[in-house]
Amino acid sequence: MTEPRKIRGGALLAQALHEKGVDHVFTLAGGFCNPALEGFMECQMPVVNCPHEQIAGHLADGHARITRKPAVCLIGPEGFANAVPAIMEALGERSPVIFVTGSSTLKRQGAGGFKEIDDVAIAAPLTKYSVQITDGARIGEFVDRAWTAATSGYPGPVHLSLPVDIMFSSFEETVGREERPYNRAASPVPRAWPAPEPLAQILDIIASAKKPVLIGGHGVWWSGAEAKLERAGLDLGIPIFNVPYHQKLLGEECEAYMGLADFHQYHPSKEAIQASDVVVMIGGRLDNQMNFGNAPFFPKSTKLICVNGSHEEFENNRAADLFLLSDPGAFLDALWGLKERGLWKLDRAWFDENRTRRGAWVDKTLSDLATETKADTEAGRLMHPLQLSLDVQAEMGDKDWLIFDGGNTHFWSEIAVNLAGWHGKKLGGIMHPGNYSLLGVGVSFAIAAKNTHPDQNVVLISGDGAFLSGGLSIEAAFQEGLPITVVIDNNGGLDCISQQQERLFESGKHFATDFRDIPFHSMFEGLGGHGELVTKRAELGPALRRAMQSGKTACVNVKCRGVISPIVAATSDKRDKASIE
Questions:
Q1: Do the bridges between strand 170-172 and strand 6-8 make them parallel or antiparallel, or are there none, so unpaired?
Q2: What is the pLDDT of residues 67-113, one digit of tens each?
Q3: Which domain holds residue 273?
Q4: What is the number of domains present in the chain?
Q5: 196 CB neighbour count, 10 Å cutoff
């Protein structure tokens, strides 16, 4: 009789993840995880070896955001601490990353084992699900549980801890298969269907509105409902805004998309929201960015409705006047159906009013920038960061990906994509730091975009401070043959913080925020890439074209002047505010 084939616990883990449909693993290879790496190799699953565990986490996060399916970050016990910032970033963006720790031995747990930490407890407040696997026969079961937690309801990161003695131990290849579910391939994600009575009540309120507004949040993206959001806005004539700190749901060129629901970065959103009679937030949270649902952000006279696909989100939206448990796509279908049923009577006046406001804002902003840029050129000053972002977009194609990272660099780039979009500029995708505004994610996200869209240009605009926070991840671009172009907004320091200090400190000066003159372009050349230094605006376009055409991972190091962004200026009055909140 043939003996059943036995494999290590790490190989069981790899097989279970492969069966679920995971197509990428990101890691910093370590001895604790070798059996899993062997299993991934046997499954022929792509594994990207990264120079740091935080980078592996950000790459997995970026991959999950783009593909909208879980990716795996595999780390050792000491590396788990390095990955914590990436777990936090994934949590803020609701990204279903499966973090796996090859942890210290189970046999001697609590006795001071080699590299022993309580990774399960550390991960618990930053994930939807964090558990240690204590029985190798249940590895497949816990992968199934983690996958379900990561993808269903309110999506988000999860964590599995596999002790090294279970990782290396041998088990029958079919262990655990005698119990249901026999088929452990990924199933369609369950969706919440709206109850008829509350849905009808909410639709009646919206149908009666004279000045309705839609605000799209993360839930629209993860449910794949952005095309339905666009259809509702265009066909019903409802202006659409996007919550800040999330990759775009709609292209800025979309006629229904007005900009961010952010009074500082896009001032017309204040006029729209405060004049509205009904605001419907779909798949979003009434958090600090939405003033927790309170006035003056949302006036008392405005009916505030929250539509969320999971009951888990209601605790964040308790301030809403009405809320509806519904998959965003199902709700948007029902909303659009009002017109099909002849129940939609709103004319285009409110929609056109918001389009007019956006156009006037674009014209004034570009006019002011042109005046300032002309003065910069005549005086020999360095270029404005807003002009930098606009000029970069002008060199990009409709399917190219734009990533930005930093403080003011991020804020100015948000403004720039709205300005360029009004004039029809299309991009393949946009990514940037999420809800926690974590610096240093840009290079990893750019690599993730290039990995999933290898035939498109991927350009990262990064502040110098943001690049110093996560720039080591650039080695993964070289190692994996994924050439990206990094444009450094080089203003010589942590400019966003400097400007806050100058408004906070009694001396009016800044402190401990300056950098030396760092030759970022030379760093790329030393690694085998392409690098150029730009000190004048006229040099930027040609330099960027050469960088993208070089076929190499490239850096265009642009000397810019520090210019305070509207959000920092509005929220950091001298000696009155210590931060931008």
A1: antiparallel
A2: 999 999 999 988 899 999 999 999 999 999 999 999 878 877 776 77
A3: 196-354
A4: 3
A5: 9
